[in-house]
Amino acid sequence: MTALTGAGPAALAVLEARIAHGRECLIDRFDDWVPPAKGRDCDVVIVGGGQSGLAAAFGLMRMGINRVRVLDAATAGGEGPWVRFARMLTLRSPKWLWGPELGIPDLSFRAWCEAAHGPAFYAAIAKIPKDLWMDYLVWFRRVVGVTVENEATVRGIEPDAGGLRVAVTRGGLEQWLATRKVVLATGMDGCGKPALPAQLTAGLAPGTFAHTLDAIDFPALKGRRVAVLGAASSAFDNASTALEHGAAEVRLYCRHTTIARHNPNMSLVYPGSLQAFSDLDDGLRWEVMRHVFARASAPTRETLNRAVRQPGFRLVLGAPWQRLAAQDEGIAITTPAGTWSADFVIFGTGFAPDLASRPELATCADLIALWRDRYHPPPALASEAVGAYPYLGPGYEFLERTPATAAWLRDVHCFNYGATPSHGISVGGNPAMRFGVPRLVHAIVRDFMRADVEHHRRRMMSPPEPELDEGEWLGPWASAG
Ligand SMILES: Cc1cc2nc3c(=O)[nH]c(=O)nc-3n(C[C@H](O)[C@H](O)[C@H](O)COP(=O)(O)OP(=O)(O)OC[C@H]3O[C@@H](n4cnc5c(N)ncnc54)[C@H](O)[C@@H]3O)c2cc1C
Asked: For labelling alongside 71, which of 60, 180, 394, 428 has CA 20 to 30 A away?
Protein backbone atom coordinates (compact mmCIF):
# COMPACT_ATOMS: atom_id res chain seq x y z
CA MET A 1 0.00 0.00 0.00
CA THR A 2 1.51 3.29 -1.10
CA ALA A 3 2.07 5.34 2.07
CA LEU A 4 0.90 8.91 2.01
CA THR A 5 3.78 11.34 2.38
CA GLY A 6 3.38 15.11 2.60
CA ALA A 7 0.11 16.83 1.78
CA GLY A 8 -1.46 18.44 -1.24
CA PRO A 9 -2.18 17.43 -4.84
CA ALA A 10 0.44 14.68 -4.96
CA ALA A 11 -0.77 13.06 -1.76
CA LEU A 12 -4.37 13.41 -2.90
CA ALA A 13 -3.49 11.73 -6.18
CA VAL A 14 -1.98 8.83 -4.25
CA LEU A 15 -5.08 8.62 -2.07
CA GLU A 16 -7.42 8.68 -5.08
CA ALA A 17 -5.40 5.95 -6.80
CA ARG A 18 -5.64 3.91 -3.63
CA ILE A 19 -9.41 4.42 -3.51
CA ALA A 20 -9.76 3.30 -7.11
CA HIS A 21 -7.65 0.23 -6.40
CA GLY A 22 -9.58 -0.49 -3.22
CA ARG A 23 -12.89 -0.32 -5.04
CA GLU A 24 -11.56 -2.67 -7.69
CA CYS A 25 -10.52 -5.10 -4.95
CA LEU A 26 -14.02 -4.83 -3.53
CA ILE A 27 -15.66 -5.19 -6.94
CA ASP A 28 -17.53 -2.15 -5.75
CA ARG A 29 -19.39 -1.44 -8.98
CA PHE A 30 -22.09 -3.45 -10.69
CA ASP A 31 -23.60 -3.15 -14.09
CA ASP A 32 -27.21 -2.04 -14.23
CA TRP A 33 -29.50 -4.90 -13.29
CA VAL A 34 -32.71 -2.89 -13.10
CA PRO A 35 -34.40 -3.42 -16.46
CA PRO A 36 -34.73 -0.06 -18.26
CA ALA A 37 -38.37 1.02 -18.06
CA LYS A 38 -40.06 2.51 -21.10
CA GLY A 39 -40.47 6.27 -21.05
CA ARG A 40 -38.31 6.76 -17.95
CA ASP A 41 -35.50 9.32 -17.85
CA CYS A 42 -33.96 7.48 -14.94
CA ASP A 43 -34.74 4.97 -12.19
CA VAL A 44 -34.18 7.23 -9.19
CA VAL A 45 -34.33 10.99 -8.71
CA ILE A 46 -32.54 12.18 -5.59
CA VAL A 47 -33.68 15.63 -4.55
CA GLY A 48 -30.78 17.23 -2.68
CA GLY A 49 -27.06 17.04 -3.38
CA GLY A 50 -26.01 17.52 0.24
CA GLN A 51 -24.19 14.79 2.20
CA SER A 52 -27.26 12.57 2.44
CA GLY A 53 -28.03 12.81 -1.27
CA LEU A 54 -24.41 12.12 -2.18
CA ALA A 55 -24.18 9.14 0.17
CA ALA A 56 -27.51 7.77 -1.10
CA ALA A 57 -26.39 8.07 -4.74
CA PHE A 58 -23.08 6.42 -3.87
CA GLY A 59 -24.89 3.63 -2.03
CA LEU A 60 -27.20 2.99 -4.99
CA MET A 61 -24.35 2.99 -7.51
CA ARG A 62 -22.48 0.45 -5.40
CA MET A 63 -25.54 -1.79 -5.80
CA GLY A 64 -25.64 -1.40 -9.58
CA ILE A 65 -28.46 1.16 -9.61
CA ASN A 66 -26.71 3.64 -11.83
CA ARG A 67 -29.55 5.48 -13.57
CA VAL A 68 -29.73 8.02 -10.77
CA ARG A 69 -30.19 11.81 -11.14
CA VAL A 70 -29.21 14.08 -8.26
CA LEU A 71 -30.83 17.52 -8.36
CA ASP A 72 -30.08 20.46 -6.12
CA ALA A 73 -31.51 23.98 -6.09
CA ALA A 74 -28.24 25.40 -4.81
CA THR A 75 -25.30 26.45 -6.93
CA ALA A 76 -22.40 24.00 -7.26
CA GLY A 77 -20.41 23.80 -4.03
CA GLY A 78 -23.22 25.54 -2.11
CA GLU A 79 -25.28 22.45 -1.22
CA GLY A 80 -26.48 22.08 2.35
CA PRO A 81 -26.03 24.62 5.13
CA TRP A 82 -22.22 24.62 5.37
CA VAL A 83 -21.33 27.67 3.25
CA ARG A 84 -24.83 29.17 3.13
CA PHE A 85 -26.55 29.62 6.50
CA ALA A 86 -24.39 27.60 8.93
CA ARG A 87 -22.69 30.30 10.96
CA MET A 88 -20.67 28.16 13.28
CA LEU A 89 -16.90 28.02 12.84
CA THR A 90 -16.66 24.25 13.06
CA LEU A 91 -19.00 21.29 12.88
CA ARG A 92 -20.62 20.58 16.22
CA SER A 93 -19.95 16.87 16.05
CA PRO A 94 -16.57 15.24 16.79
CA LYS A 95 -14.06 15.13 13.88
CA TRP A 96 -13.77 11.36 13.94
CA LEU A 97 -17.49 10.81 13.34
CA TRP A 98 -18.41 8.75 10.31
CA GLY A 99 -19.63 10.50 7.19
CA PRO A 100 -20.74 9.49 3.67
CA GLU A 101 -17.81 7.05 3.13
CA LEU A 102 -20.04 4.03 3.79
CA GLY A 103 -17.26 1.92 5.27
CA ILE A 104 -14.45 2.78 2.84
CA PRO A 105 -11.71 4.25 5.07
CA ASP A 106 -9.88 6.06 2.26
CA LEU A 107 -13.07 7.98 1.47
CA SER A 108 -13.35 9.26 5.02
CA PHE A 109 -12.93 12.88 6.03
CA ARG A 110 -9.75 11.98 7.94
CA ALA A 111 -8.10 10.28 4.95
CA TRP A 112 -8.94 13.23 2.72
CA CYS A 113 -7.87 15.81 5.31
CA GLU A 114 -4.53 14.12 5.96
CA ALA A 115 -3.85 13.90 2.22
CA ALA A 116 -5.00 17.42 1.43
CA HIS A 117 -3.65 19.22 4.52
CA GLY A 118 -1.32 16.77 6.24
CA PRO A 119 -1.63 14.42 9.24
CA ALA A 120 -0.33 17.13 11.57
CA PHE A 121 -3.12 19.47 10.47
CA TYR A 122 -5.75 16.80 11.08
CA ALA A 123 -4.26 15.98 14.46
CA ALA A 124 -4.28 19.64 15.41
CA ILE A 125 -7.93 20.45 14.63
CA ALA A 126 -10.32 19.93 17.53
CA LYS A 127 -13.39 19.94 15.31
CA ILE A 128 -13.85 20.17 11.53
CA PRO A 129 -14.01 23.74 10.19
CA LYS A 130 -17.35 23.89 8.36
CA ASP A 131 -15.90 25.20 5.08
CA LEU A 132 -13.39 22.34 5.14
CA TRP A 133 -16.26 19.89 5.51
CA MET A 134 -17.78 21.40 2.37
CA ASP A 135 -14.45 21.04 0.53
CA TYR A 136 -14.42 17.40 1.57
CA LEU A 137 -17.99 16.81 0.26
CA VAL A 138 -17.08 18.41 -3.08
CA TRP A 139 -14.02 16.13 -3.29
CA PHE A 140 -16.07 13.10 -2.20
CA ARG A 141 -18.65 13.51 -4.92
CA ARG A 142 -15.98 13.87 -7.60
CA VAL A 143 -14.02 10.80 -6.45
CA VAL A 144 -17.05 8.50 -6.17
CA GLY A 145 -18.46 9.82 -9.42
CA VAL A 146 -21.77 11.36 -8.29
CA THR A 147 -22.97 14.08 -10.64
CA VAL A 148 -25.12 16.80 -9.07
CA GLU A 149 -27.34 18.88 -11.36
CA ASN A 150 -27.28 22.26 -9.64
CA GLU A 151 -29.69 25.18 -9.77
CA ALA A 152 -32.45 22.64 -10.40
CA THR A 153 -35.43 23.04 -8.05
CA VAL A 154 -37.99 20.27 -7.67
CA ARG A 155 -41.45 21.78 -7.49
CA GLY A 156 -43.71 18.78 -7.55
CA ILE A 157 -43.98 15.00 -7.61
CA GLU A 158 -46.92 13.13 -9.07
CA PRO A 159 -47.75 9.66 -10.32
CA ASP A 160 -47.88 8.83 -14.02
CA ALA A 161 -48.46 5.70 -16.04
CA GLY A 162 -44.89 4.46 -15.72
CA GLY A 163 -44.19 5.51 -12.16
CA LEU A 164 -43.53 9.07 -11.05
CA ARG A 165 -42.84 12.36 -12.71
CA VAL A 166 -40.97 15.19 -11.09
CA ALA A 167 -41.41 18.88 -11.95
CA VAL A 168 -38.03 20.61 -12.13
CA THR A 169 -37.36 24.30 -12.64
CA ARG A 170 -33.92 25.30 -13.89
CA GLY A 171 -32.85 28.42 -15.65
CA GLY A 172 -36.45 29.65 -15.46
CA LEU A 173 -37.63 26.68 -17.51
CA GLU A 174 -39.92 23.95 -16.20
CA GLN A 175 -39.44 20.36 -17.25
CA TRP A 176 -40.70 16.99 -16.14
CA LEU A 177 -38.41 14.10 -15.30
CA ALA A 178 -39.91 10.63 -15.53
CA THR A 179 -38.58 8.25 -12.89
CA ARG A 180 -39.54 5.23 -10.79
CA LYS A 181 -38.31 6.35 -7.40
CA VAL A 182 -37.77 9.67 -5.64
CA VAL A 183 -35.51 10.18 -2.62
CA LEU A 184 -36.07 13.43 -0.75
CA ALA A 185 -32.63 14.19 0.70
CA THR A 186 -33.71 17.73 1.37
CA GLY A 187 -32.17 18.43 4.77
CA MET A 188 -33.33 19.77 8.13
CA ASP A 189 -36.32 21.63 6.71
CA GLY A 190 -37.12 18.85 4.22
CA CYS A 191 -40.54 18.23 5.78
CA GLY A 192 -41.33 21.74 6.85
CA LYS A 193 -40.24 25.30 7.10
CA PRO A 194 -38.43 27.71 9.40
CA ALA A 195 -40.48 28.18 12.59
CA LEU A 196 -41.44 31.86 12.41
CA PRO A 197 -44.11 32.75 14.98
CA ALA A 198 -46.62 34.73 12.89
CA GLN A 199 -47.99 36.54 15.92
CA LEU A 200 -44.52 37.99 16.51
CA THR A 201 -43.58 38.89 12.95
CA ALA A 202 -46.97 40.36 12.03
CA GLY A 203 -46.06 43.84 13.24
CA LEU A 204 -42.56 43.94 11.77
CA ALA A 205 -41.41 45.70 8.62
CA PRO A 206 -39.70 43.55 5.96
CA GLY A 207 -35.93 43.68 6.27
CA THR A 208 -36.02 44.13 10.04
CA PHE A 209 -36.05 40.43 10.90
CA ALA A 210 -34.82 37.09 9.63
CA HIS A 211 -34.67 33.40 10.55
CA THR A 212 -31.30 31.69 11.06
CA LEU A 213 -32.01 29.74 7.84
CA ASP A 214 -32.12 32.98 5.83
CA ALA A 215 -29.32 34.82 4.10
CA ILE A 216 -28.55 37.69 6.49
CA ASP A 217 -26.57 40.83 5.56
CA PHE A 218 -24.34 40.82 8.64
CA PRO A 219 -22.10 43.76 7.57
CA ALA A 220 -25.30 45.85 7.52
CA LEU A 221 -25.74 45.11 11.24
CA LYS A 222 -22.59 47.09 12.10
CA GLY A 223 -23.28 49.49 14.98
CA ARG A 224 -26.84 48.22 15.39
CA ARG A 225 -28.71 46.52 18.24
CA VAL A 226 -29.60 42.93 17.41
CA ALA A 227 -32.01 40.65 19.27
CA VAL A 228 -31.91 36.88 18.85
CA LEU A 229 -34.73 34.59 19.97
CA GLY A 230 -33.68 31.07 20.94
CA ALA A 231 -30.80 29.50 22.84
CA ALA A 232 -29.67 26.56 20.74
CA SER A 233 -26.47 26.51 18.69
CA SER A 234 -27.75 28.40 15.65
CA ALA A 235 -29.05 31.26 17.81
CA PHE A 236 -25.66 31.64 19.49
CA ASP A 237 -23.79 31.29 16.18
CA ASN A 238 -25.86 34.08 14.62
CA ALA A 239 -25.36 36.26 17.70
CA SER A 240 -21.59 35.77 17.46
CA THR A 241 -21.56 36.45 13.72
CA ALA A 242 -23.46 39.72 14.21
CA LEU A 243 -20.98 40.85 16.88
CA GLU A 244 -18.02 39.81 14.73
CA HIS A 245 -19.46 42.09 12.03
CA GLY A 246 -19.54 45.01 14.46
CA ALA A 247 -23.07 44.94 15.88
CA ALA A 248 -23.23 47.38 18.83
CA GLU A 249 -24.93 44.77 21.04
CA VAL A 250 -26.59 41.42 20.69
CA ARG A 251 -29.17 40.28 23.22
CA LEU A 252 -30.04 36.61 23.09
CA TYR A 253 -33.40 35.76 24.65
CA CYS A 254 -34.13 32.35 26.12
CA ARG A 255 -37.63 31.54 27.37
CA HIS A 256 -36.20 29.16 29.98
CA THR A 257 -34.40 30.36 33.12
CA THR A 258 -31.43 28.17 32.26
CA ILE A 259 -29.58 27.26 29.07
CA ALA A 260 -30.03 23.63 28.00
CA ARG A 261 -27.02 21.55 28.94
CA HIS A 262 -27.71 18.45 26.89
CA ASN A 263 -28.14 17.53 23.24
CA PRO A 264 -30.77 14.77 23.62
CA ASN A 265 -30.03 13.54 20.10
CA MET A 266 -26.64 12.32 21.31
CA SER A 267 -28.34 9.69 23.49
CA LEU A 268 -29.49 8.05 20.28
CA VAL A 269 -26.00 7.85 18.78
CA TYR A 270 -25.18 4.18 19.26
CA PRO A 271 -25.41 1.31 16.77
CA GLY A 272 -28.53 -0.30 18.23
CA SER A 273 -30.55 2.90 17.99
CA LEU A 274 -29.04 4.05 14.68
CA GLN A 275 -29.68 0.67 13.09
CA ALA A 276 -32.99 -0.43 14.49
CA PHE A 277 -34.92 2.55 15.95
CA SER A 278 -37.54 2.12 13.24
CA ASP A 279 -38.11 -1.49 14.32
CA LEU A 280 -39.23 -0.38 17.79
CA ASP A 281 -42.94 -0.12 18.56
CA ASP A 282 -44.86 3.08 17.91
CA GLY A 283 -45.39 3.89 21.58
CA LEU A 284 -41.69 3.84 22.42
CA ARG A 285 -40.68 5.81 19.32
CA TRP A 286 -43.30 8.44 20.10
CA GLU A 287 -42.20 8.67 23.75
CA VAL A 288 -38.52 9.00 22.86
CA MET A 289 -39.15 11.63 20.20
CA ARG A 290 -41.47 13.58 22.45
CA HIS A 291 -38.57 13.67 24.91
CA VAL A 292 -36.04 14.68 22.21
CA PHE A 293 -38.29 17.45 20.86
CA ALA A 294 -39.25 18.72 24.32
CA ARG A 295 -36.43 21.22 24.36
CA ALA A 296 -33.94 22.52 21.82
CA SER A 297 -30.41 21.09 22.09
CA ALA A 298 -27.72 22.76 24.14
CA PRO A 299 -25.22 24.94 22.33
CA THR A 300 -21.78 23.35 22.16
CA ARG A 301 -19.11 24.74 24.51
CA GLU A 302 -17.25 26.37 21.59
CA THR A 303 -20.46 28.00 20.39
CA LEU A 304 -21.27 29.38 23.86
CA ASN A 305 -17.75 30.66 24.51
CA ARG A 306 -17.52 32.33 21.09
CA ALA A 307 -20.53 34.47 22.05
CA VAL A 308 -20.00 35.18 25.75
CA ARG A 309 -16.41 36.29 25.15
CA GLN A 310 -17.62 39.19 23.05
CA PRO A 311 -18.18 42.42 25.01
CA GLY A 312 -21.45 43.24 23.26
CA PHE A 313 -23.11 39.94 24.09
CA ARG A 314 -26.02 39.80 26.56
CA LEU A 315 -28.08 36.77 27.60
CA VAL A 316 -31.63 37.33 28.83
CA LEU A 317 -33.09 34.30 30.60
CA GLY A 318 -36.73 33.56 31.41
CA ALA A 319 -37.76 35.94 28.63
CA PRO A 320 -40.11 34.39 26.09
CA TRP A 321 -41.17 37.01 23.55
CA GLN A 322 -44.81 38.00 24.08
CA ARG A 323 -45.02 40.82 21.55
CA LEU A 324 -42.90 42.61 18.97
CA ALA A 325 -43.86 46.05 17.74
CA ALA A 326 -42.15 48.28 15.19
CA GLN A 327 -41.56 51.72 16.70
CA ASP A 328 -39.59 54.82 15.73
CA GLU A 329 -36.62 53.91 17.89
CA GLY A 330 -36.64 50.29 16.68
CA ILE A 331 -38.48 47.08 17.52
CA ALA A 332 -39.99 46.93 20.98
CA ILE A 333 -39.62 43.46 22.49
CA THR A 334 -42.06 42.70 25.29
CA THR A 335 -41.28 39.81 27.65
CA PRO A 336 -42.39 38.92 31.20
CA ALA A 337 -38.87 39.92 32.26
CA GLY A 338 -39.19 43.41 30.77
CA THR A 339 -39.22 45.31 27.50
CA TRP A 340 -36.20 45.94 25.31
CA SER A 341 -35.57 47.52 21.97
CA ALA A 342 -33.61 46.34 18.95
CA ASP A 343 -32.93 47.39 15.36
CA PHE A 344 -32.93 43.88 13.90
CA VAL A 345 -34.37 40.57 15.04
CA ILE A 346 -33.10 37.07 14.32
CA PHE A 347 -35.32 34.06 14.98
CA GLY A 348 -33.24 31.10 16.12
CA THR A 349 -36.43 29.09 16.44
CA GLY A 350 -35.63 25.99 14.38
CA PHE A 351 -37.97 24.27 11.96
CA ALA A 352 -41.64 23.35 12.05
CA PRO A 353 -42.93 20.18 10.34
CA ASP A 354 -45.42 21.18 7.61
CA LEU A 355 -45.43 18.98 4.50
CA ALA A 356 -47.75 21.30 2.57
CA SER A 357 -45.19 24.11 2.85
CA ARG A 358 -42.72 22.12 0.74
CA PRO A 359 -42.99 22.90 -2.98
CA GLU A 360 -42.15 19.33 -3.92
CA LEU A 361 -44.93 17.96 -1.67
CA ALA A 362 -47.58 20.65 -1.94
CA THR A 363 -49.82 18.62 -4.24
CA CYS A 364 -49.71 15.41 -2.21
CA ALA A 365 -49.18 16.52 1.41
CA ASP A 366 -52.77 15.70 2.34
CA LEU A 367 -52.39 12.13 1.12
CA ILE A 368 -49.39 11.36 3.36
CA ALA A 369 -49.84 9.55 6.68
CA LEU A 370 -48.62 11.50 9.67
CA TRP A 371 -47.85 10.12 13.13
CA ARG A 372 -51.06 11.63 14.50
CA ASP A 373 -52.96 9.56 11.90
CA ARG A 374 -51.32 6.30 12.99
CA TYR A 375 -50.63 6.55 16.71
CA HIS A 376 -52.73 7.92 19.54
CA PRO A 377 -50.68 8.36 22.69
CA PRO A 378 -52.04 8.35 26.22
CA PRO A 379 -53.02 11.96 27.17
CA ALA A 380 -49.91 12.38 29.31
CA LEU A 381 -47.74 11.81 26.26
CA ALA A 382 -49.55 14.13 23.87
CA SER A 383 -47.25 15.93 21.43
CA GLU A 384 -48.34 18.15 18.55
CA ALA A 385 -44.74 18.27 17.34
CA VAL A 386 -44.26 14.49 16.92
CA GLY A 387 -47.78 14.09 15.51
CA ALA A 388 -47.05 16.48 12.61
CA TYR A 389 -44.20 14.36 11.20
CA PRO A 390 -44.74 11.77 8.48
CA TYR A 391 -45.25 8.20 9.63
CA LEU A 392 -42.80 6.38 7.41
CA GLY A 393 -42.32 2.78 6.35
CA PRO A 394 -39.16 0.72 7.08
CA GLY A 395 -37.43 2.05 3.94
CA TYR A 396 -38.22 5.72 4.69
CA GLU A 397 -41.13 5.50 2.27
CA PHE A 398 -44.18 7.71 2.69
CA LEU A 399 -47.38 5.81 3.46
CA GLU A 400 -50.85 6.80 2.37
CA ARG A 401 -53.07 8.41 4.97
CA THR A 402 -56.13 6.60 3.64
CA PRO A 403 -55.63 3.09 2.21
CA ALA A 404 -55.96 2.74 -1.56
CA THR A 405 -55.75 6.48 -2.23
CA ALA A 406 -52.08 7.00 -3.12
CA ALA A 407 -50.09 3.76 -3.25
CA TRP A 408 -47.52 5.58 -5.41
CA LEU A 409 -46.32 7.42 -2.31
CA ARG A 410 -44.39 4.26 -1.41
CA ASP A 411 -41.99 5.18 -4.20
CA VAL A 412 -41.15 8.48 -2.51
CA HIS A 413 -38.55 8.02 0.23
CA CYS A 414 -38.33 10.73 2.89
CA PHE A 415 -34.59 10.76 3.59
CA ASN A 416 -34.41 13.97 5.56
CA TYR A 417 -34.93 15.28 9.07
CA GLY A 418 -38.64 14.55 8.73
CA ALA A 419 -37.78 10.86 9.12
CA THR A 420 -36.56 11.34 12.69
CA PRO A 421 -39.67 10.24 14.64
CA SER A 422 -39.91 7.11 12.49
CA HIS A 423 -36.21 6.25 12.09
CA GLY A 424 -34.42 8.01 14.93
CA ILE A 425 -31.40 10.02 13.92
CA SER A 426 -30.42 7.77 11.06
CA VAL A 427 -30.82 10.59 8.51
CA GLY A 428 -29.04 13.86 7.85
CA GLY A 429 -26.49 14.19 10.62
CA ASN A 430 -23.00 12.87 10.21
CA PRO A 431 -23.46 9.77 12.37
CA ALA A 432 -26.53 8.85 10.31
CA MET A 433 -25.37 7.97 6.82
CA ARG A 434 -23.50 4.78 7.73
CA PHE A 435 -26.74 3.30 9.06
CA GLY A 436 -29.44 5.12 7.14
CA VAL A 437 -28.08 4.77 3.62
CA PRO A 438 -27.88 0.94 3.60
CA ARG A 439 -31.47 0.79 4.90
CA LEU A 440 -32.65 3.17 2.17
CA VAL A 441 -30.71 1.32 -0.54
CA HIS A 442 -32.07 -2.04 0.61
CA ALA A 443 -35.63 -0.72 0.36
CA ILE A 444 -35.09 0.56 -3.19
CA VAL A 445 -33.44 -2.69 -4.29
CA ARG A 446 -36.31 -4.64 -2.69
CA ASP A 447 -38.93 -2.56 -4.47
CA PHE A 448 -37.28 -2.85 -7.88
CA MET A 449 -36.97 -6.63 -7.49
CA ARG A 450 -40.65 -6.85 -6.61
CA ALA A 451 -41.83 -4.38 -9.25
CA ASP A 452 -39.96 -6.20 -12.01
CA VAL A 453 -40.58 -9.65 -10.59
CA GLU A 454 -41.33 -11.35 -13.90
CA HIS A 455 -38.10 -10.03 -15.36
CA HIS A 456 -36.17 -11.36 -12.35
CA ARG A 457 -38.02 -14.68 -12.38
CA ARG A 458 -36.82 -15.14 -15.95
CA ARG A 459 -33.31 -13.93 -15.08
CA MET A 460 -32.95 -16.09 -11.98
CA MET A 461 -34.16 -19.12 -13.88
CA SER A 462 -32.27 -18.46 -17.06
CA PRO A 463 -29.21 -20.58 -17.66
CA PRO A 464 -26.13 -18.76 -16.43
CA GLU A 465 -22.77 -18.86 -18.14
CA PRO A 466 -21.98 -22.54 -18.40
CA GLU A 467 -19.25 -23.83 -16.14
CA LEU A 468 -18.30 -26.41 -18.77
CA ASP A 469 -18.30 -26.50 -22.56
CA GLU A 470 -20.56 -29.01 -24.24
CA GLY A 471 -19.07 -32.54 -23.79
CA GLU A 472 -16.12 -31.18 -21.83
CA TRP A 473 -16.44 -34.15 -19.50
CA LEU A 474 -16.08 -36.59 -22.32
CA GLY A 475 -12.82 -38.56 -22.67
CA PRO A 476 -11.24 -41.92 -22.25
CA TRP A 477 -12.32 -41.91 -18.54
CA ALA A 478 -16.00 -41.74 -19.52
CA SER A 479 -18.04 -44.71 -20.62
CA ALA A 480 -21.78 -45.40 -20.99
CA GLY A 481 -23.09 -47.19 -17.85
C1 LIG B 1 -26.60 25.08 10.88
C2 LIG B 1 -26.50 23.58 10.94
C3 LIG B 1 -25.38 23.00 11.52
C4 LIG B 1 -25.29 21.59 11.61
N5 LIG B 1 -24.18 21.05 12.17
C6 LIG B 1 -24.08 19.70 12.23
C7 LIG B 1 -22.92 19.09 12.78
O8 LIG B 1 -22.00 19.74 13.21
N9 LIG B 1 -22.85 17.73 12.81
C10 LIG B 1 -23.87 16.94 12.33
O11 LIG B 1 -23.78 15.72 12.39
N12 LIG B 1 -24.99 17.49 11.81
C13 LIG B 1 -25.10 18.85 11.76
N14 LIG B 1 -26.23 19.39 11.22
C15 LIG B 1 -27.30 18.48 10.80
C16 LIG B 1 -27.04 17.85 9.42
O17 LIG B 1 -25.83 17.22 9.37
C18 LIG B 1 -27.06 18.82 8.36
O19 LIG B 1 -28.33 19.34 8.30
C20 LIG B 1 -26.70 18.25 7.00
O21 LIG B 1 -26.61 19.32 6.12
C22 LIG B 1 -27.72 17.25 6.52
O23 LIG B 1 -27.34 16.82 5.24
P24 LIG B 1 -28.46 16.55 4.14
O25 LIG B 1 -27.76 16.15 2.92
O26 LIG B 1 -29.46 15.64 4.72
O27 LIG B 1 -29.20 17.94 3.94
P28 LIG B 1 -28.56 19.27 3.36
O29 LIG B 1 -27.10 19.28 3.53
O30 LIG B 1 -29.35 20.37 3.95
O31 LIG B 1 -28.86 19.19 1.80
C32 LIG B 1 -30.15 19.26 1.32
C33 LIG B 1 -30.07 19.86 -0.07
O34 LIG B 1 -31.37 19.75 -0.65
C35 LIG B 1 -31.55 20.82 -1.51
N36 LIG B 1 -32.99 20.97 -1.73
C37 LIG B 1 -33.94 21.11 -0.79
N38 LIG B 1 -35.17 21.18 -1.37
C39 LIG B 1 -34.96 21.09 -2.69
C40 LIG B 1 -35.83 21.10 -3.84
N41 LIG B 1 -37.15 21.21 -3.71
N42 LIG B 1 -35.26 21.01 -5.07
C43 LIG B 1 -33.92 20.86 -5.21
N44 LIG B 1 -33.04 20.85 -4.17
C45 LIG B 1 -33.57 20.95 -2.94
C46 LIG B 1 -30.92 22.00 -0.79
O47 LIG B 1 -30.52 23.00 -1.72
C48 LIG B 1 -29.72 21.35 -0.08
O49 LIG B 1 -28.52 21.55 -0.79
C50 LIG B 1 -26.34 20.79 11.11
C51 LIG B 1 -27.45 21.38 10.53
C52 LIG B 1 -27.54 22.76 10.44
C53 LIG B 1 -28.75 23.38 9.82
From this structure: 394
Strand extents, DSSP E, 311-387: 313-316, 323-327, 330-335, 338-342, 344-347, 351-353
Q: For residue 35, with 0-12 CB atoms within 10 Å meaning exposed, 13-18 middle and 19 or more buried, which class applies?
A: middle
Domains of the chain: 9-191+353-453 (3.50.50.60), 196-260+296-349 (3.50.50.60)
**Strand, coil or helix: 113:** helix
Whether pTM > 0.90 for this model: the answer is yes
Q: How far apart are the CA of 187 and the centre of ligand 1, in A?
A: 4
Protein residue with its CA nearest to atom 1 in ligand 1: 86
What confidence category does residue 15 fall into, taking pLDDT thresholds of 50, 70 and 90? very high
Pocket of ligand 1 (CB under 6 A): 47-53, 71-74, 79-81, 86, 91-93, 153-154, 185-188, 234, 359-360, 416, 428-430
In contact, 228 and 331? CB cutoff 8 Å: no
The residue-averaged pLDDT of 207-211 equals 97
Alpha-carbon span 5 to 255, nearest angstrom: 52
Closest listed residue to residue 76, CA positions, set 47, 100, 41, 50:
50
pLDDT digit string, tens, across residues 155-196: 999 999 999 999 999 999 999 999 999 999 999 999 999 999
Strand, helix or coil at 345? strand
